[in-house]
Design a protein that fits this description.
about 325 residues, alpha/beta, TIM Barrel, 8-stranded parallel β-barrel, two-stranded antiparallel sheet, 12 helices, globular, binds NADP nicotinamide-adenine-dinucleotide phosphate
Length: about 325
């Protein structure tokens, strides 16, 4: 199992998730020091894949600073372009990020992100959708192809929402100068939204990489009295957690890894303790009947994303 660290929770104090308690993050200097220490712990614990984005506030800057203390070419960094963080660390901000899929934004964000080279290995369109026409935007696609050839990086997309599979299908068909442009697909997948399963073999058979995000359904896999409709799922996860002597997070991450072969699964840990717990997934192997049991809890993508939309920035 390959586990990567997502840096959404390390670069900005608020992000979309379910939080059992409010976290005091108002002192930016101590927030940064904390995030730096989580990157360092991840490295010591063997993590070598880090996912970031300009939309994650300070995350790219922090990662850049931290990489300079490492000089290790086994570290792989994946970043994105297309969202700008605008909340300015204000917990009460009404708008946290602005999406803009234009050639100008790509050039602007590349100019900063390229400093992550040579560890920079994957460049992704952040939340590619059919609506913005990004997968038909020739100037953007040509620019990405030039970056791919010029810097030996792999180009990818991230997907979100009910039509992830449709977007992936369309992206697999994007060719520039006769070759497929996209090699990496970062997709939301967990026991609730399993739509990726319907296309994962196609992606893998074309020698592309799958990166799984939101494997813990933004915290919804943990027992929560506001989600009583998942009580049966909670019971199964807790029974397995007990059996394997890990948390339900490790069970959920391992479920993703075993059901989507050769994927990289992102941990969204916001501190070292969570990360250590998440990494315990690497020491267990679920049985087929246990995978089937968990699989049976899938819900319609429509319902999944309706519920996801109701989650607040915490
Ligand atoms: N491309 C995109 O549009 C996109 C969207 C979302 C995520 N991502 C990427 O995917 C990464 C992971 O996604 P995610 O942040 O949504 O991840 P997730 O794994 O679905 O959820 C993370 C949540 O799980 C909680 N958690 C993790 N381990 C825990 C533990 N042992 N005990 C208690 N709570 C625990 C965190 O707690 P706290 O509440 O304490 O923080 C957080 O609420 C991100 O960092 C980012 O790199 C990309």
């Amino acid at each position: 199992m390959k586990l990567g660290l997502g840096t959404a929770a390390l670069g900005r104090p608020q992000y979309i998730n379910l939080r059992s308690k409010q976290i005091e993050n108002s002192d930016i200097e101590s927030f940064k020091a904390h995030s730096f220490s989580v990157l360092e712990s991840a490295y010591k614990l063997g993590v070598r894949y880090f996912d970031t984005a300009p939309g994650y506030g300070l995350a790219e800057t922090l990662l850049l600073e931290w990489l300079q203390t490492k000089k290790d070419n086994t570290i792989e960094v994946a970043t994105k372009w297309g969202y700008t963080y605008v909340a300015n660390f204000d917990a009460n901000a009404k708008v946290h990020e602005i999406k803009e899929h234009s050639l100008e934004k790509l050039k602007e964000q590349w100019a900063f992100s390229k400093q992550l080279l040579p560890n920079f290995k994957v460049y992704q369109i952040h939340s590619a959708t059919l609506e913005t026409g990004i997968l038909e935007n020739k100037p953007v696609l040509n620019y990405l192809a030039a970056l791919k050839n010029g810097h030996g990086i792999r180009i990818g997309i991230t997907t979100t929402g009910i039509n992830q599979v449709e977007v992936i299908k369309k992206a697999l068909d994007v060719h520039v100068d006769g070759g497929q442009l996209f090699d990496v697909f970062q997709v939301t997948y967990n026991m609730l939204d399993q739509s990726l399963k319907t296309i994962s073999d196609v992606i893998i058979n074309q020698n592309k990489s799958i990166v799984i995000k939101e494997a813990l359904a933004n915290g919804r896999v943990f027992r929560n009295e506001n989600y009583a409709h998942y009580n049966d799922l909670y019971k199964v996860l807790e029974r397995l957690a007990n059996k394997y002597k890990v948390g339900v997070d490790a069970i959920s991450l391992q479920f993703c890894a075993q059901t989507i072969q050769s994927s990289t699964v992102l941990s969204g840990a916001s501190n070292t303790i969570q990360l250590q717990e998440n990494l315990k997934a690497q020491n267990i192997q679920l049985l087929n009947n246990e995978l089937e049991e968990i699989t049976s809890f899938k819900i319609e993508a429509d319902d999944y994303w309706k519920e996801r939309k109701l989650l607040a920035w915490n």
